[in-house]
Write a structure and sequence with these properties.
The structure holds two protein chains of two kinds. By secondary structure, chain A is an alpha+beta fold. Chain A has 26 helices and 23 strands. About 11% of the residues of chain A have low confidence. The chains are: A alpha+beta, B mainly beta. Chain B: Pfam families: CheW.
Chain lengths: 681, 157
């Protein structure tokens, strides 16, 4: 089967399922008795198994199958969840991930999983997985080698569905003569005949092994066909050097009852009856249902990958279209042709929707970066022998794709650092009167034109004396200057480049390994990193990143004929005030806003738009804030709320007062974005 | 027939400002746009020669009026007025000129580095003058013409 066209989809979905597995496993570790979680993992593993089997990745299918058995045993309360078992399952999912990545990079997805499979088998058998490593794994071999083929649920579904549609499903066992020379050639001939007759859904051994002549002198093919058994058998037997071809209808032996099923297999009812037998049909049906359910779950996050450059091109082309749309609108307005007006209106509406879609395509929740951290923290905590609880807040915060791609590595660095140098060992923590388990919080949120990502821990914090000592040793600061530095400045010393050149810094209870790399990466993105730390209480690393090309919500306001955008994140509310409400304090006009004195800032003055001739009785104001401080911006009128794409003014116009960028409006015109932070002292 | 005596030739775009012809290297020119088709958004608080920004196929591009920059008398924009989009190392800027319609090869030896007479244009803006047949072309030093604008107010904050 040519599976290349499905490869992308397979990779994408496998990753999703593995991610789901990982997340749920971490959950399971916290609540070992919650069987609902086991079910979730089972479902993910199950789908992955079916997919990989269909795609011909036997190793993945094999390993997931064993994983599934273990999960099944847990589900049926045969074995209890222990961290030992979870370690093996985690290791398996790591191995699966490696294989998937291998496939993604053009590999065959093969990996020696025997050891893991053995361990999983042991767990399933109720033994400790560690014993398994030493034992030989004969059981595994025999399980697959039995006379009856084992069908997974996907194959069962295929078979039962084909039968419902009037096809027959046969197991065709081909035995070659002992003196057969070119076994692979015979296999090929048999396959050729069968492929004309119907669809091959499974072989034993695998196709690959057959092609490599890695089999004795017999093989089994499962085929779905419209032809009947005798006809097919006769055709196959025409191939020379064939001992014989046995044919029989497909019989299901579910994986769980594979050993017990041999006796049942002897009584082989004809295919047509199989289909009608209610007892046989029942499991097939439920499987069907399960398959449908999981496909539904997929459709929610079915994805395709698009090169970001293409999206850029699309976006720019679209913006040109918008300009022409604006022109068309004005032409239509002039001509007053009803039909033209109608068409233009429709086009305007559709292209508006289109614009939203294009803009949103570039935004990715920061979750895609964050979701690899729980597992990493778990592993690191084990390696370091520490107890750490990772909390993630704001994973849904959306960021432009280009930024997302870059921030992963710096964050990994920061988290490692927090775990290694920040959080103390359980003993130290107890001695310091803290809970045994350290808490590390990863937080993301939007603020203004920036995204903030914070990493906070309740560990030891930066040890001022030691950091200063190091810094002086390394000539980063002089002793005189060192005296005058604030705690914050001292903490930030660990980001300086000389600081991290030390090969070993574990004797410093602060931090410092390679953080200069983090700093330079973040700065290359136009971002900023700062540290706040209290000795003995923990540290907060704050990474501020610009939304280089990002969508933000703004309030569009009008002054004279000009349109400005005020970021919604800065706005508290809008109001209409009367001239009588304006008070004077120290030559500054202020208003009383809910009991607070708020200075009035006339944007028309600041932006030099030319003042209106007569003072109006009513004024429109936008109340904005910077931290605790408020200001009331006076504007001519409000246009409304809108999502816009943030664009920089470029390097020619560096730091223009009170403007943080520009955007292109629906009519193709540029509107400037007001930087409220600059307007409030 | 072309004379291959001089092998070093600079290809330039020639444009008009008032009664003089100026030239910039063709390499830095990205495109030439009709000004009347563009809507310029004014930017408050910048030097008056920065007319504002335009939407150039999705890119917000600042526009500099060269007449203003060179302290030449202002003129109403008309159908011939062009915006030459230049592509410098760190940024794109559009230059408003009276007209732009010529591409001329200037042999390197035709360029005089010390301009004797350059009218009202500040000499720091001029890289040299070339006399091609009867035309006098002023080569611009774009790096000096387009020094990035930093706002003093913003720095105080």
């Amino acid at each position: 089967m040519d599976t290349n066209q499905y490869l992308e989809m397979f990779l994408e979905e496998s990753k999703e399922h593995l991610q789901a597995c990982n997340e749920q496993l971490l959950e399971l570790e916290k609540n070992p008795d919650d069987l609902a979680i086991v079910n979730e993992i089972f479902r993910a593993a199950h789908t992955l198994k079916g997919m990989s089997a269909t795609m011909g990745y036997e190793d993945i299918a094999n390993l997931t199958h064993k994983m599934e058995n273990v999960l099944d045993a847990i589900r049926n309360a045969k074995i209890r969840v222990t961290s030992e078992i979870l370690d093996v399952v985690f290791e398996s999912s790591d191995a699966l991930e490696e294989m998937v990545i291998d496939i993604e990079q053009g590999g065959s997805g093969k990996k020696d999983v025997e050891k893991l499979v053995t361990m999983l088998n042991q767990i399933e058998a109720g033994k400790s997985p560690l014993e398994a490593v030493h034992e030989k794994m004969e059981e595994v071999q025999t399980a697959d080698d039995s006379e009856g083929l084992v069908y997974d649920d996907f194959e069962q579904t295929v078979v039962s569905q084909s039968i419902e549609q009037g096809f027959h499903a046969f197991e065709l066992k081909v035995i070659l003569r002992d003196d057969c020379l070119l076994k692979a050639a015979r296999v090929f001939m048999v396959f050729e005949i069968l492929e004309k007759a119907g669809e091959i859904i499974k072989t034993y051994p695998t196709v690959e092994r057959l092609e490599n002549e890695e089999f004795d002198n017999q093989f089994t093919v499962v085929i779905v066909t419209k032809e009947d058994a005798d006809e097919l058998q006769a055709k196959v037997q025409k191939v020379s050097e064939l001992e014989k071809a046995e044919i029989r209808p497909v019989q299901f032996q579910s994986a769980a009852i594979e050993t017990a099923a041999t006796t049942e297999a002897a009584i082989t009812p004809p295919v047509s009856e199989t289909a009608k037998q209610p007892a046989k049909k029942e499991p097939a049906k439920t499987e069907n249902g399960a398959a449908k359910r999981s496909t539904n779950a997929h459709s929610a996050n079915k994805t395709i990958r698009v090169n970001i450059d293409r999206l850029d091109v699309l976006m720019n082309l679209f913006e040109e279209l918008v300009i022409d749309r604006g022109r068309l609108q004005s032409i239509a307005a002039e001509l007053q042709n009803a039909e033209l007006n109608e068409t233009t209106e429709r086009m305007t509406r559709i292209s508006g929707d289109l614009q939203n879609i294009i803009l949103n395509m570039r935004m990715v929740p920061v979750e895609t970066v964050f979701n690899r951290f729980p597992k990493m923290v778990r592993q690191l905590a084990r390696d370091l022998d520490k107890k750490i609880n990772l909390e993630i807040i704001g994973a849904e915060t959306e960021l432009d794709r280009t930024v997302i791609d870059e921030i992963g590595d710096p964050l990994v660095h920061l988290i490692r650092n927090a775990l290694d140098h920040g959080v103390e060992s359980p003993a130290e923590r107890i001695a310091a009167g803290k809970p045994e388990e350290g808490t590390v919080t990863l937080r993301a949120y939007h603020s203004g034109n920036h995204v903030f990502i914070e990493l906070e821990d309740d560990g030891a914090g930066v040890n001022r004396a030691r950091v200063l000592k190091k810094a002086i040793e390394r000539d980063i600061v002089t002793e005189e200057i060192a005296e005058t530095l604030t705690d914050k400045q001292v903490a930030e010393l660990i980001l300086s480049s000389g600081f991290s050149t030390a090969e070993k810094l574990t004797d410093v209870s602060g931090r410092g390994v390679g953080l200069d790399v983090v700093k330079s990466t973040i700065e290359s993105l136009g971002g900023h990193i700062s540290i706040e730390s209290k000795e003995g209480q923990g540290s907060l690393f704050q990474v501020q990143l610009p939304l280089t090309l990002s969508i933000i919500s703004v309030m569009l306001v009008q002054m004279q004929k000009e349109i400005f955008a005020v970021p919604l994140s800065s706005i508290i509310e809008t109001a209409i005030i009367q001239n009588a409400d304006i008070l004077n304090a120290h030559n500054q006009r202020v208003i009383d806003f809910r009991g607070k004195i708020v200075p009035l800032v006339d944007l028309r003055e600041i932006f030099d738009t030319g003042l209106p001739e007569e003072p109006e009785e009513l004024k429109s104001v936008v109340i904005v804030r910077k931290g605790e401080n408020l200001a009331a911006l006076v504007v001519d009128s409000f246009i409304g709320q809108q999502e816009i794409v943030l664009k920089s003014l470029g390097n020619y116009l560096q730091s223009v007062f009170a403007l943080s960028g520009a955007t292109i409006l629906g009519n193709g015109q540029v509107a400037l974005i007001v930087d409220c932070n600059a307007l409030i002292k | 027939m072309t004379t291959e005596v001089e092998n070093k030739v600079m290809k330039t775009i020639v444009f008009q400002l008032l009664d003089k012809e100026y030239a910039i290297e063709v390499d830095v020119v990205q495109s030439i746009e009709k000004l009347l088709l563009m809507t310029i958004t004014r930017i408050p608080g910048v030097p008056s020669y920065v007319k504002g920004v335009i939407n150039l196929r999705g890119m917000v591009t600042p526009i500099v009026d060269l007449r203003n920059r060179f302290d030449l008398p202002e003129m109403e924009y008309n159908d011939n007025t062009r915006i030459i989009i230049v592509n410098l190392e760190n940024f794109d800027v559009g230059l408003i000129v009276d007209d732009a319609n010529d591409v001329i090869d200037i042999p390197a030896n035709a360029l005089e580095s010390q301009p004797e007479v350059v009218g009202s244009v500040e000499s720091e803006f001029v890289a040299g003058v070339a006399k091609i047949e009867k035309r006098l072309l002023v080569m611009l030093n774009l790096d000096n013409v387009l020094r990035p604008i930093r706002n003093v107010n913003a720095d105080e904050n």
